[in-house]
Amino acid sequence: EEFITSIVDSIIKSQSKQIIIYGQKRCGKSSVMLHLKEKLEATGKTFCVLFSLGDIIQNLTEASFYYKILSSIQDELENLEFEGRTIPDIQFPNAEDFKKEDMDNPLNTFTKYMSRFKRVCKVTEGWEEKNLVVMIDEFTYLYTEIKKEHISSSIMKQWKAVTQNEKSQFSVVLVGQDVVPSFKKEDYA
Fold this sequence. Notes:
Layout lengths: L1 H11 L5 E6 L5 H14 L3 E7 L9 H21 L12 H7 L4 H17 L8 E7 L2 H8 L6 H11 L6 E7 L2 H6 L4
Parallel strand pairs: 1-4, 2-3, 3-4
């Protein structure tokens, strides 16, 4: 409880914060993340999206990674709308259109839509000050794909840049296995 409360406070007090939770398999990391999401949402100051890279591991590419974030935001917005809540008026591209927009650098397309989302939030009642929190479980799958050379290691430098870009700032909670220290040592993170 104290650990989760500390993370909640840290995220709420910052427009852009990256937190990594890691440990051995089956030690409760995903459970902590679910409780964290619940606590963050209870503050009314965040909009959280949660997914696992395990959902896209068969087709994990830079494009599928960035698209998964956008589609998770869209899915969560649709859930809120179904509940009768006011949501920002934005439409994200489908997977095909996302790939077509900038085939050479999917980060450009991702950044464009994240910037739009932030602008639309600023003019949507109740969303003006909400902090987007992207929560990614099984993040170490990305490390595995980098080690296999299926994905360029530059994705981590891009990831750091995009989360700190003032136009598209958002907070991130990453959950992974205990290879995260190796990941960091290799200067990927």
